[in-house]
Design a protein that fits this description.
- Helix 2 (about 20-30) runs antiparallel to helix 3.
- The chain has a four-stranded mixed β-sheet, with helices on one face.
- It folds into two domains: about 5-60, no CATH class; about 70-150, 3-Layer(aba) Sandwich (Glutaredoxin).
- The protein has helices at about 5-10, 20-30, 35-45, 50-60, 80, 85-95, 140-150, and strands spanning about 70-75, 110-115, 125-130, 130-135.
- The chain has about 150 residues and is of the alpha+beta class.
- The structure holds FE2/S2 (inorganic) cluster.
- FE2/S2 (inorganic) cluster (FES) binds near residues 79 and 117.
Length: about 150
């Protein structure tokens, strides 16, 4: 039995109310909602996959790609936007050669745009896993990325 089947077995009563808990369990297990998983859940609950994608996309919490070892969030709140978060995001994407919601080929880095990270007076704000960085400019961003790249060498 696959790990996906094991998750579905936790929900023996096939009810659409179970959709969110099932998706949550899948994300906890696999790190994201894969296409294979969504198709299988759709068959299990007799729901169209487009509907599942639509619902999962509504909740910012669900991801469709895995996180990298170092998951970088760039705050996209109003204050950080006013403080130039777009410059930071563009530089980050250029430096890692990936776009937001993508993961580097080596699996080390991923980028996500985030809602307000509760440090509005100190933007632009980014985080790497659980560590927050404030007042990020291009130079500071380069130092942060170098630090994590060096950890892998
Ligand atoms: S807007 Fe970025 S921390 Fe609040």
């Amino acid at each position: 039995m696959s790990r996906l089947d094991e998750i579905l077995e936790r929900y023996p009563f096939v009810q659409r109310d179970n959709l969110i808990p099932i998706l949550q369990d899948i994300q906890d297990e696999f790190g994201c909602l894969t296409e294979e998983a969504i198709v299988k859940v759709g068959k299990y609950l007799s729901l169209p996959t487009a509907k599942i994608y639509g619902l999962a996309s509504f909740y910012h919490h669900f991801r469709f790609v895995k996180k990298g070892k170092y998951h970088i969030k760039v705050c996209n709140g109003t204050s950080c936007h006013a403080n130039g978060n777009t410059i930071i995001l563009n530089e980050l994407e250029k430096s890692l050669d990936i776009k937001s919601d993508e993961i580097t080929r080596d699996g080390n880095f991923s980028i996500e745009e985030s809602s307000c990270m509760a440090s509005c007076g100190y933007g632009p704000v980014i985080s790497v896993n659980d560590r927050h960085y404030t007042n990020v400019d291009i130079e500071k961003l380069a130092e942060i990325i170098d630090y994590y790249k060096n950890m892998e060498e």
